[in-house]
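ARCHIVE CARD
CATEGORY: sequence design from structure
SOURCE FIELD: tokenized fold
FIELD CONTENT:
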């Protein structure tokens, strides 16, 4: 089994929060489930830019952390839905605050990103 060379230090609340909702796609998956897109196929359709394998991997991680749980219906074909645990529901206000911050600051961040890219391009041209 894989053993990390540097052990994770999860004694800090921020480290725990980042471990659970950090990553490129987890917040979007949580938002999908919040918007009642509960089935894996629905999440895959919503997040069509992301490979299904990656979505499934993040769903499994969120499930392992106890943020969501998988409800399997005894139907043919089997139907699976994801729901929030009580702890998972407690993350929703955090996601709301992050979304508000992103909406309030997206123009600034995009402008800064564009300035950074143009400065990088100028630098590369000068050194070439």
């Amino acid at each position: 089994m894989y053993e990390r060379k540097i052990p994770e230090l999860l004694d800090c609340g921020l480290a725990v929060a980042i471990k659970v909702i950090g990553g490129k796609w987890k917040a979007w998956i949580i938002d999908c489930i919040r918007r009642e897109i509960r089935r894996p196929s629905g999440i895959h359709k919503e997040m069509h830019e992301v490979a299904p394998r990656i979505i499934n991997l993040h769903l499994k991680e969120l499930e392992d952390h106890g943020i969501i749980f998988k409800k399997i219906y005894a139907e043919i074909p089997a139907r699976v839905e994801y729901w929030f645990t009580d702890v998972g529901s407690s993350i929703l206000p955090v996601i709301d605050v992050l979304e508000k911050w992103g909406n309030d600051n997206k123009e600034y961040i995009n402008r800064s990103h564009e300035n950074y890219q143009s400065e990088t391009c100028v630098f590369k041209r000068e050194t070439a």
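CARD ANNOTATION: The chain has one domain: 13-127. The longest helix spans residues 92-127.
SHELF: design records, drawer C
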